[in-house]
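BACKBONE GEOMETRY TOKENS:
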Amino acid sequence: MNTSKKKKTTTDQTDLAQKAYLGIRQMLFHNEIVPGQKIAYRDLAERLEMSPTPVIQALKFLEFQGLVRREPNRGYYTEPISLIEVREVFELREMLEVSLLPRALENLDEKGITRLKKAYEAHLATSNSIYPSERLLKNVEFHLTLASLSQCSIHQKVLQNLFDLMNLKYRSGVIYLTSMEMTDPNHEQLFEAITARELSKAQKLLTMHISDSRKLVIMGLERMVEEKKILTI
């Protein structure tokens, strides 16, 4: 096989693995694969209309992200719910987001205000949506847009990974975050404090917002554990 054919084959394999990865992410997000479930990779390959090889490659990357685990001679499983992990994720998220606010306000210009306002209004527009996942995604978009104003790329990537973990592994509990009665006023007050460049007020509002979100998520997950709808550790 010549060099050009080898490169094409490698590219095709990478593209298929990426397609498999995105497909499995969608299944996790829509609760088609639930915590603690054994993953039949051959069934996934059939659903995704591809061979098992790229599916296994995708599962290896999801294992690296902490979303699935591989047990020798048994295969892949989704990780069970861990309330300790949820608390840790929110603690880290609070530290990251609040620490980025000074830099965000320092870099804030009219373009940044416009971007943040657009993200805020996009979330507000989902208030009448019958799809909780849509509100959830727009909530994440608002927070990531705010973080992006800091121009701290590494921090943003870490924050994105935290949101991925919560949305893909703990989506059933995270749906409680989409309560418009809580989230919309929080976002509005936060947006106003940021555009007014009131750093101390913005930090307090953001801390309170994330703390309230943590309580709602844990409450939802604890309820599901009690009803034995999910596995936990």
Notes: The chain is about 75% helix and 5% strand. Strands lie at 38-39, 68-71, 75-78.
